[in-house]
Each structure stands twice: as C-alpha cells, then as structure tokens.
Amino acid sequence: MDKALYTSMTGAKNNTLAQAVHANNLANVGTDGFRRDFVAARSMGIWYGDGLPTRAHSLAESPATDFEIGQMRETGRDLDVAVRGRGWIAVVAPDGREAYTRAGSLQITALGQLQTGNGLPVVGNGGPIAVPNSQKVEIGGDGTITARPLGQGAEALVQVDRIRLVDPPEDQLEKGPDGLMYLKDGSRAPVAPNVEVASGFIESSNVNAVEALTELLSLSRQYETQVRLMKNVDDNSQAAARLLQVS
C-alpha cells in the first residue's frame, strides 16, 4: 500500500472520530449538567532502524472530559438543585452501579421515589430516596430533604433523607456511554460534607455552541483534504501503472 495513502487514511479516520465527539457535544448543548468531551490526535513518526522517521501517522489521544462548571439558571422550582462549585449528585445507573451527575432537575414518582429528570433514582444515606406523600418538599443547601405531610402545618416538617453529595478527584472519574460519571476503579466515592446545592436552580451544559460548531466545520474541511489526498495518490498510482504498461 502506498505510504502517502496510509498516512492520509489515518488522518481521515481520526478526523471522523473527532467529528463524532464534537457532534455529540453540540447535540447536548441544552442538556442540563452535561460535561463536554475533548478529543485530540498527534503525529506519530514511523522509524525503520536508525535515522529520521520515514513518515508520520495520525494517532488518536485518550479522550478527556471538560469539568468546567456550567452556568446556573434560576427556575424557582423546589425540586431543582444545582451543585455549587465542585461536587456531584449520586444516582443509581441503569446497570445498578453508583454514578454521578450534575443534572439536578429532580422529580418524585407516583410511588414516592426521588429521581432525576431522566428517571435515575437519587441516592441518599441509605440508598435510593423515598419521599412520603407530602404537600410540600424542600431541599436544603446540604442536600437535606424535608417534607410537610398532607394536611399538616409548617411546624410539622419531617426530615426525609439527605442527598448523597460527593467530590472525588477529577482524575479518578471517567464518563460512561450514558453520559454519567463513574469512578475508574468501580468503587463508591465518600460523602463530601463541603459540597452544597442551591435549590431553585439548574446548571446548564458547559458546551459552547459556537465553538463546537466551528470545530465541526474545521474538522470537516480537514477530512475533505485527507480524502482529496487519497484520491490524488490513487490517480498517481493509476498513471504510473499505465506508464509501465506502455513501456
């Protein structure tokens, strides 16, 4: 296989992977608490023995997550919470593992279970949080959930549970295909008493729509360049073959 063809092929391949990552970021610009992903590629020289490399291939780097905090948007809804600064809300992932999210648009199901907007149970001190039938539910700054039973006055507030708030080191977290964060070693992060939430607020995605769209356009042009290079290599190969046939 021609060396130039293989080099441009690796470039086109990694351009395609990068476009997929940035397209996913752009698609989640309106997803509460979403953390955008980084993707990068670098040139990797190819050596045969001593001396200088004969060519360079494109090599994909390990993707990473941008942990920059998104903007807080006021909603005034009692069950909406946004983590102040660093920290995460613990939830139960679809596979049963403990996962972490910043999406704090919470809701109470007909069975009294406290869940995120996409239906994930929120974890408290003793597991998934269950809220009794109440006329008003409030969430304090430390994640404490209080409820006023039906037909009772403000003096009858009951402490239901406390949302499990954690703050593991960012280098120990990895994003799963479902967009949730997990500890790389599969363990559970300890409760972080310093983490606070703001009731009546939601954290927006940290994706910059203009930047993501610009990156997509740039990567698309780079991909077209790689494809044109592959076409030129193929044309040159065919022309060389015709010359050999004539000779």
What do you see in this structure?
The chain is an alpha+beta fold and 247 residues long. It folds into 2 domains: 3-67 and 207-246; 72-203, no CATH class. The protein contains 2 helices and 20 strands. Helix 1 (3-27) runs antiparallel to helix 2 (209-246).
Shape: elongated
Strand content: 25-35%
Which strand order do you get reading across the main beta sheet? 8-7-16
Computed over alpha carbons, the radius of gyration is 26 Å
Count of DSSP strands? 20
Mean pLDDT, to the nearest integer, reads: 88
The domain count comes to 2
The description of the largest β-sheet is:
3 strands, antiparallel
Supply the number of helical segments. Answer: 2
Structural class: alpha+beta
Terminus-to-terminus distance: 23 Å
Low-confidence stretches: none
Describe this structure in a few short sentences:
It contains two helices and 20 strands.
Label this structure with key terms.
alpha+beta; 2 helices; 20 strands; 247 residues; three-stranded antiparallel sheet; 29% strand; elongated
Outline the fold blueprint:
Blueprint: H1 3-27, E1 37-38, E2 41-46, E3 55-60, E4 64-65, E5 72-74, E6 81-84, E7 88-92, E8 98-101, E9 107-108, E10 114-115, E11 123-124, E12 127-128, E13 134-139, E14 144-149, E15 158-162, E16 165-166, E17 173-175, E18 181-183, E19 196-199, E20 201-203, H2 209-246
Antiparallel strand pairs: 1-4, 2-3, 5-20, 6-19, 7-8, 7-16, 9-10, 11-12, 13-14, 14-15, 17-18
Helix pairs in contact: 1-2
